[in-house]
Structures
1.
Amino acid sequence: MLKSFVVLSICTCLLQVIFACRSSNSGQLQSNLEPTPKESSPNEEVSLAIDADNFRETLTRKMYGVNWEGSTGTTSNLKSTFARYSEIGIGSVRFPGGWFGEHYDYFTNAYHDAFDALGPWGGVDADTFLNALPADIEPRFIIRTLPSYYGSDTVLAEEVLYAVAVVNKYANKVKTWDLGNEYYLFGPKGNPNNPIKYARVAKAMIPALKSAQPQIEIFLQVDWVKPQDVEILRRELGESVWSMVTGLSPHIYSGDTDPEHRAENISINIALMQKYAGRKMKIWSSEWNASRAWSGEKEGLAGASVMMQVFDRLVKDQLVDIADIWAYSSPPINLVNWNAKEFKPRGLAYQMLAQYYLGHRLEVEGNLQGTYVMASLTEAPSQHLHVFVLARESLARLINIDIKNFRWNQGRSTILSNFEAPFAETVPKVTEGKIVGKMIDNTTRRTSIPLPKQGNEGGGWDIIHLEFFPQ
């Protein structure tokens, strides 16, 4: 995939994540600074208090999805992989995933390169993909724009007819359509980040697509670090066509040292997109992940943790409506094995995030400094209480948890520690155990969970998943 893997300062993104949103009264941008994390002494005890009746809101599982990179692999594990997606609450899958959406032909199952040469696709075709997809996972498809972007008016007219035919073919199965993939990276012929050339394609395609299938939703690609491009797209399309656009589709990657791509810019730039759009538009982060720039370093998990925090806030503040992870670039939050195209449990951080959004988001109180804590209560009738803790360094020797207004008598813990190279295939230290507790009053049960001793190297990351079962 032709991808610009954006970067941010690891030091800054570990210590600060600034989130901005519009004030409902003034429309001005406001920013909130995350507390600076402090490393916990490995000898201290830490405590949490969770009240199952104290929840913020219920968020839909349809919020989170993945990109299906279907250019390689086979169909043998397709249904089992999608079944695992359903288990962890994934609500959508984008096909055919990333840059491949600009090359795939939905009728011939052929692959076109940037110069229109034909080649074998060799992967899962759209019809097989849809037939294997469970009813509770929504497909979101990509309409190619690359030939039109470079092509003559004649080519553009032909591509409009092709796009209409594709939308008509899947009218009863696919509602959401992404117009192209990262036009701002097209090359070598084009001027990188040329929204005017992209708008020419969009202006021809959108009215035709909406005329053929008025119920579909169309999203425009936009470079998340250049929100001002939204103003150009709006001007070039004209208000009539602009009114047919459902929303914007930025690809939010963040990592390393480039100031332009720092995590604290994400919510600021999304708010600016809305400003330039002139109306409230849906935001579909149709690809997001931590940058591959962390590859081979323990900061890879740090990047995953930061991006989880960022998207947690974006969802909570209703700045993002849909978020489809790029499932292959950052193993700490990966969901699939690149070669086998099957679900792999090493995507632990994202599994936690997906599970977190299955139910009510609970408030957590406690003295856990330098960590990020999430808690959720899944929907009835099979209510489970989940607690996730992400800690940059060795957390403590003991964690005490008081759970109020949730009747449980047992649970299980999964603790991963000593991450030295989370991007590697090696598995970190995993400690599993049962959880028991005792009642301390009529509504509260307390449990104490010992944490594993870190290795001689010290430091590392702890990821803790606690699941409590109802009585």
2.
Amino acid sequence: MTEAGSVRGSTAPEREIRGYLRRVEGLGRQLLGARFEGAQGLWSFQLGLLSLQQEIQSSLGREKGKPKRTRNFNSVEQLRECLYRARQLGDAFAWILFGLDDHKLRPLMRNSRVPVAQDHKYSRGLLALAELLAGKGWGFPLLHDVTDCIRIGDLTFVRPSGQCEPTYLTLEAKTTITGETVREDGSIDVEYQVKLASAVEFDADTGRILSAPLPRTQTPESTPARARAERQARRMVKASLQQVSESGRVMEIDGGLHVGARVDSASRFHWGDLRRVIRASRQSGYAAFSPAPGIVYAALFSKDGVTREVAERGDFLPDLDKFDFLSNDLPAGQKNVMVIYPVPPYRPSTGIAPGFLPFFLYSIPKRAIFEIVRGQLLLVAMVNLARIAEFLQQKGYTVFRRTKGPRHEALDVRGQIENAAGERFEAELCGFESYVDELVYGFRAIDYLADLVDTLLRSSVQGISDWRQAQPAPG
């Protein structure tokens, strides 16, 4: 919960935060309106976004560096929220450049969170290199530093390929300063040496990809620096192999078996319902809809900013009965479990980045998108995991509910699957509650979950069956 968008005071920190939010909104309008003059316009947009993020990060660092007795903790939280909004805008930029292809983008998200890059000689060297190679025809350079979601590599060159799919060359860059010369006017010329590494072989002159990624063999890690470089290389190889994986095919990646699966679902989206409740919330401050038993989406609106007090009033509580949210027919020992999803999700502190479409790209009016930026509109989803379990059981699956920590519940889903040869297998998806996130943040109909389970189980069973058939006979 944030009040960043509701800042209306006149103190210096409040004015600074309002200015940052206006700049995020201005860049967001430029991106969504596609107001660019060619590739140079895209590059200028990206540099402007990076500069904004660096400025917000510097302000946040100064505030956090104050003694606790003088630190403005409200400003710290508001600056964090401003920074996250700017990073989400960078995520939207990345999703657009990747053509909304999550199969290409998600593998690059599987790493720890990367902080905002500070403006220094080394980071400026990467910018100069990206611009130089772009001018040589390598493609458009997406700087990973402007995103929160891309956590592997330093930059990706996106190259359109006419009638074919675009290519994406992801690179890790190691920058070394080899010399500095001070001019008479006091400016400094800096010479760099940059080593580029990728999971694929590429032409050093044109940047064209020459080979598919190959599994990486284990190499000795004699020093901490080499060990770090080896981990980075293995992550890049793993991500590149996942990007080219085929549905239902097994690949051996990093010592394990990876089964590709792409869900083809005809389930509908609920964008129309969401647009309707957003409009209604502007009239009454609150509106909600339920696309299925156990799922409720709510919109809270205040032109002065949705504060924590407004969010905690509990306007949605009467709707839980009206929308058939709770289950009254649970087995002994089980209970209703409500999970609240803020939309967009909270800042992830560790682990994999959320692989969902950034709210800047939601199919809702731009007015609503920038009301979210300003903190005037808050969207919330409430899900009862007991109802999710009931739905999957009605589809013929066995669902196991187990405790996962003091405040969390996990779902494991098991089903009987037949492969192409007519053999029947029992397959299980552990930790299925994480897939519920895809339903919620994708605003999909609940039938999507059944399609998801069927695709994942069926792809795994068939993929493993084919892989076993292809193994050489022992002896």
3.
Amino acid sequence: MLQAADLATLPTNDAAAGKWGLAGLDLASATSPAAPVSMMMNAVAANVPAGAGLFEFPIYNPTNEPIHLSVDLTLPAPVSTGSPLTVATWNTSSYANRWVYRDTTTNIACGSVFDDPVYVPDYSLPGCNIDPPLGGSSTPVPASGNVPAADFTIRAWMTDQTTTTLTELSQCAGCSTTPVGSNRVRVTVLVPPRGSVTSRPPVKVTIMPALRPNAAYRPAGSTASPTVEFSAAGQFLTGNNLASATACVQWSPGATSPSPTTFRCTRTRSYTLAKYASSITVGGTGGQFANLATGIAGDTTATPLHLGSNTFRMFSPSGASWSTSEPAPPAL
């Protein structure tokens, strides 16, 4: 049953259930995994439910019978007849190998050596080096493309409404996968009954059309290593930590002395050679319809015509479906 008042909205996040809204995946998140953007960059097998939501809406099963529910999602138009690509687009910017850094207060004894005509710290001692790392690139790498039709899917989460626990429902074995009409994708799930205790609330299922992960969103130069969230330069970046280095950038009692003394490094710069995403945008998904069909048997679901307009939901994003950027960290 689809309630007239339950309109399509942007998805909410439930980290415990692995449920994330696409618009809520934020590169600027200060903690991990508050918004794990990397989940959209690591491809998974086609038969594994994955991806973040474009929109969501609830349906209910108030009966004492299990119900098969089919959801047909309309896709953005193909770029040309028969093309596997849609007119929806993605654009990214990233760094393939950039040295980012963070300064911290330290107190490292670095001795002294005579460097005529003054004494200087012994740069050969651990933690006393002053040279910044070599290599790396500060040039952002842009990339863009069209979103494949195969990247659009439907996910569903169930709750009995007596707890806050969400359980994901996946495509049921032997159930219909053929949508009604062209340029659509279908998923069919089995919705459990409420049960014989009529005082219990109906089973609630949140339907979430979603965009599946695509390795094309990964930072430039990514290899087989999974993209992850990692701490660098005082924030969380999305990509990979490639190397690290340190250098002293502040001395006490100064950088030189006319007489022997124990120099101390009082500020250390910690460098990370990072491969990371700096911005991601997905747009052009347009207005999408999610049409419902139900049935006792999963292979023969049909639209419940007696419900009239309460057999579908439409969502049309204002602007991009996903647009996020990473605040620029201190970097070379």
